[in-house]
Amino acid sequence: MPPSGLFPRRALAEGAGALGRSLPLVGGGSWTRLVHGGGGGSEAEGEEFPYADVPRPGRKWERKPYVTPMKVLIRRAKEERRARRENPCRVLERPPENGLLVPGLVGVAHQVHGAWESLLRGLTRLVEGGAVAVRRCRFCPEVHVGGVGHEIRTCEGPGSAARNALHVWRPGTARDVVGFPYCYHLFDRVGKPRVSHKEKYDVPRLPAILELCIQAGVDVERYPAKRRTRPVYSIEGRIVDFEPDDDEDDSADDTGPSLPSLAADEAGKMEEEMTVCELGARTLQSWLDMRAGAARLMGKYGVVTCGYCPEVQVGPKGHKVRMCKASKHQQRDGQHAWQEATVDDLVRPNYVWHVPATGHGGDGGAPPLANELKRYYGKAPAVVELCVRAGAPVPAQYRSMMRLDVVPPARDEHDLVA
């Protein structure tokens, strides 16, 4: 249920009797909301989707919740140990554990890579081109999409107590909108799945979403990867590869541009001719496609994250670089507490306050978001808020999170609302 004191627009217009009709409950904790189509908005189509709110950030000294329950992980480990004891020498049959690519996910990896590049191009043009202004706090990672920063007191940076937790805003860039954590590149994700502490300066680092696409079948010249044609063997838990190494490079004569590079150039030319509204819709669609494709890839290709810090590593195991500075790192000698990652760990959404369309936000002479009315404001990922401000339609899965059915009262009326 939405928090108390949040009234839908229909309830304010028709009275308290319409409150039950505007937000009926359905089975499974879902809300039935009205999504208005094009034109004058007279026709409404009912669409059911689960009610979603912004996830609450965990405490710094607490570990992230496990994606898979611990009992299931223990049962899987026992089954693997039993299978290894019964058959010490065996051929791994299932990709990608055997070193081969998953044939059905190679195309998905190329789509995710293309959506990632399209997202970066769209954000760069929208933010640096001046279509939508972005503000970032000087002392904390808070980001605001709009011409004037909000007045909500949520700053936790240095000297925040002297400023009553008010933010000090400065112009932001496209990198502040979405966060892509970096990880170590694995040339052979099966033969050498871990990076030692002594190799931390020798192994290159790259965005984790790009590393996931490379391991799933995307070839990037700057980051080569080993592609096998035969499955590997598991001898008493150790991976053994009997495939001979091919030292001859047959692709040295191929100097022409590849098809993905040509497609990226054509997409860049098309985006230059788009309007701001069309570019916002295309960028938002790239964001949704990238997250959906990354979730499919993570179902087969392992991605792990530290349970106490934002570090991410794409591969079957985490690295051994002692660089964790989060809670209880002294007990682990600086090593990370690896566990299964989620899509939000791979692509950080960076939630920001949603600016209502009427009378708030600081644009066009309207007052900025007030701290007294923060319970009436919704939130959304910064990419979604940026594209919506550019003219893109609001995705259905973010409508409840952005609280589009809530009308914030005026500053002098917030004490009168129950």
Description:
It comes from Oryza sativa subsp. japonica (Rice). GO terms for molecular function: RNA binding. InterPro entries: APO_dom. Residues 136-222, 305-396 form the APO domain. This is Os07g0600300 protein. This protein has 418 residues and is an alpha+beta fold. The protein has a domain at 69-243 and 257-300 and 352-396. 27% of the residues lie in helices and 14% in strands. The protein has helices at residues 9-14, 19-22, 70-86, 106-128, 208-216, 259-272, 276-298, 343-346, 382-390, 399-402; strands spanning 25-26, 30-36, 44-50, 89-91, 134-137, 143-145, 169-171, 182-184, 205-207, 233-235, 238-240, 303-306, 312-314, 338-340, 351-353, 379-381. The protein has a 3-stranded antiparallel sheet, with no helix packed on it. A 3-stranded antiparallel sheet has the order 4-10-11, with no helix packed on it. A 3-stranded antiparallel sheet has the order 6-5-7. A hairpin with a 5-residue loop joins strand 5 and strand 6. Helix 4 (106-128) runs antiparallel to helix 5 (208-216) and helix 7 runs antiparallel to helix 9 (382-390). The longest helix is centred in the first third of the chain and has 23 residues, at 106-128. It is globular and about 75 Å long. The protein starts with 8 loop residues before the first helix and ends in a 16-residue tail after the last helix. Residues 1-46 and 247-258 have low confidence and may be disordered.
